[in-house]
């Protein structure tokens, strides 16, 4: 079965750049940047504009690399659509077979895993495992990929890239090239307290929604304390890459313990190009629930 979608770039809507920049206070003291149309923006305004752009993206391909808590080093290549939500990802680094990729696909509320399924501690005689009802690409309370995907990869990279919009200390680091594109590099630190304060102070709905998204993505990452965020923005004001670094927490036997370091870099590649997610035929899949039931009966 094929699931296809074609994204289209729509007119960007203004959602209050100046309001957000004012909420973030001292970030405006870092100077101005020249964006598309010769608009002069402060670092705070530039990262907010990049965050606004994400709300209009319909499809995306992206690359992931880094170190995830409880998993270690991982890398992935993925394509996705936003509405309706669909994903095709090849993920390497899970389990003992570090060099063998795990293929993960999501469409119409069903998650499929193929390839190195031993990486997720499940074995069967089918080529694919399936699980439903699954949820990918939403918020901290909604995602459900049945532990096939690490938690930081359960969310879409688009809302995750908005985290820097909630930082009070956004500054320009310098210029750089990402995937052959010239960019401006920004950096700042994000905390739950700071995000909530900015969200509460927001005076318009669009700004409040933007900061609510950032707060939600902070929860998805399971960060303990402060998160350092780097964002690379191209000449059109669009996010091209982001990196998040921090310490995480985990729940063990009912108490909070150290979860380990998070260092995740995501590069946004082709935007609003046709994306097709091919899901396997029913006869080639085994439902995870069947495996669990079989194990309990044994």
Brief descriptors of the model:
single chain, about 300 residues, alpha+beta, 2 domains, twelve-stranded mixed β-sheet, two-stranded antiparallel sheet, 6 helices, about 40% strand, disordered C terminus
Distance between the termini: 33 Å
SS element count, helices? 6
Low-confidence residue ranges? 7-23, 25-32, 34-38, 293-298
Along the chain, the helix and strand elements come as EHEEHEEEEEEHEEHHEEEEEH
How many domains make up the 3D coordinates? 2
**Helix share of residues?**
10-25%
Please count the beta strands (DSSP E, at least 2 residues each). Answer: 16
Overall radius of gyration = 20 Å
Biggest pleated sheet: 12 strands, mixed
Q: Note the beta-strand portion.
A: 35-45%
- Give me the side-by-side strand order of the main sheet: 10-11-12-13-14-4-5-6-7-8-9-16
Structural class: alpha+beta
Q: What's the overall average pLDDT, rounded?
A: 84
Overall outline: globular
């Amino acid at each position: 079965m094929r699931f296809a979608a074609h994204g289209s770039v729509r007119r960007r809507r203004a959602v209050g750049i100046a309001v957000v920049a004012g909420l973030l206070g001292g970030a405006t003291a870092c100077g101005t940047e020249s964006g598309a149309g010769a608009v002069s923006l402060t670092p705070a305004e530039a990262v907010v504009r990049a965050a606004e752009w994400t709300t209009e993206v319909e499809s995306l391909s992206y690359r992931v690399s880094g170190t995830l808590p409880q998993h270690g080093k991982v890398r992935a290549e993925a394509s996705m659509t936003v509405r309706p939500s669909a994903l095709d990802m090849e993920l390497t680094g899970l389990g003992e077979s570090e060099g063998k990729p795990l293929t993960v696909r999501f469409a119409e509320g069903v998650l499929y895993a193929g390839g190195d399924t031993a990486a997720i501690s499940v074995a069967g005689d089918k080529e694919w495992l399936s699980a439903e009802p699954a949820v990918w690409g939403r918020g901290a309370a909604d995602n459900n990929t049945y532990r096939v995907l690490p938690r930081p990869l359960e969310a879409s990279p688009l809302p995750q890239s908005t985290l820097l919009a909630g930082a009070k200390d956004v500054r320009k680091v310098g210029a750089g090239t990402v995937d052959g594109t010239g960019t401006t590099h920004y950096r700042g630190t994000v905390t739950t307290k700071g995000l909530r304060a900015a969200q509460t102070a927001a005076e318009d709905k669009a700004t409040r929604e933007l900061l609510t998204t950032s707060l939600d993505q902070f929860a998805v990452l399971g960060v303990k304390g402060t998160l350092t965020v780097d964002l690379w923005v191209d000449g059109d004001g669009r996010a091209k890459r982001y990196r998040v670094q921090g310490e995480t927490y985990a729940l063990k036997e009912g108490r909070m313990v150290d979860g380990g370091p998070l260092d995740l870099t995501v590069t946004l590649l082709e935007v609003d190009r046709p994306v097709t997610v091919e899901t396997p035929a029913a006869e080639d899949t085994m439902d995870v629930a069947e495996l669990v039931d079989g194990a309990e009966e044994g």
